[in-house]
Fold this sequence. Notes:
Elements (H helix, E strand, L loop, with lengths): L6 E5 L4 H12 L3 E5 L3 H11 L2 E2 L7 H4 L2 H9 L4 E4 L14 H29 L2 E8 L10 H20 L5 E8 L5 H7 L2 H12 L8 H14 L3 E4 L4 H18 L4 H10 L4
Parallel strand pairs: 1-2, 1-4, 2-3, 4-5, 5-6, 6-7
Helix pairs in contact: 1-9, 5-6
The structure holds NADP nicotinamide-adenine-dinucleotide phosphate.
Amino acid sequence: MRITGAHVLLTGATGTIGVALAHRFVRQGARVTLVARTLEPLQALGQATGGKAFPADLCDPETLHGLVGRVEARHGPVDVLVNNAGVDATGFLTDLTAQDLRRAIDLNLTAPLELCRQVLPGMLARRSGHLVNISSLAGVATFPGLAVYGGSKAGLTHATSGLRADLRGTPVGTLTVEIGPVVSEMMNRIGRHGPSDAAFARVLGARLLTHLDPDDVARGIVTAIEQGRPHLRLPRRAAPIAAMTGAPRALARIALSGIPARAVTQRPETRSAP
Ligand SMILES: NC(=O)c1ccc[n+]([C@@H]2O[C@H](COP(=O)([O-])OP(=O)(O)OC[C@H]3O[C@@H](n4cnc5c(N)ncnc54)[C@H](OP(=O)(O)O)[C@@H]3O)[C@@H](O)[C@H]2O)c1
């Protein structure tokens, strides 16, 4: 997918990784529509990047309903959807509230899939598009205190692999991004939970993971979209862990490759989303 001239719909735009992504997309010649809840940083980022602020709470079902249609009516067809908004729900399960649990699943899993569902009919009709879902290595390896967050991200990774199988033979690409720790508000919150902090200290100390720079993450994501790569895993030293987890999906892909592409593509192309 060519980024120059593309319209990118970016969620979680005002967070640590979102800001780096917005700047990187614009530097590469894309125009961006920026989604987050809080208007002020969204407008500031819009001014800094020339992007369009589109305030929305993705955990609110009424706001989520028809969101892509409203964005496209105002700013034109979406070429690249980047589902980057996410939230941790750090702690032992019984220490979380029902609302913490619902918010993590809604924002990390339901909203990305719903936005993919809404944007896909247009992309298939235009015969062009790319879906980017920002997952986490916490969805690959399990960490104490991250059962809910890791579970939601594992779900997102798995669902994106399934979508990729459904979209085989169509011009719509998918990218799953599995990243390790980036110094951010989210990592600060995770660090305040003793068992999670100790686990990260151990893996970082053993150099199985390193802290990532958000600009490097953004550059990697944009390059992966341009190259049509299905997965991006950072830091690279975590690749063996991710490859072992991904092996069943890779085997399934090989097994499915005997199914004619038409049989796979027929259903998505005939559907439309409200
Ligand atoms: N940071 C890490 O170490 C790390 C590691 C692996 C994966 N990731 C993933 O990378 C992505 C970005 O992480 P980050 O560290 O940049 O996050 P962050 O700094 O905490 O930013 C989160 C962004 O999401 C927005 N947001 C939060 N709740 C929302 C809602 N209900 N509706 C709409 N927008 C909402 C926030 O803006 P408002 O609060 O104004 O809405 C903000 O723009 C996430 O999916 C995260 O899971 C992060």
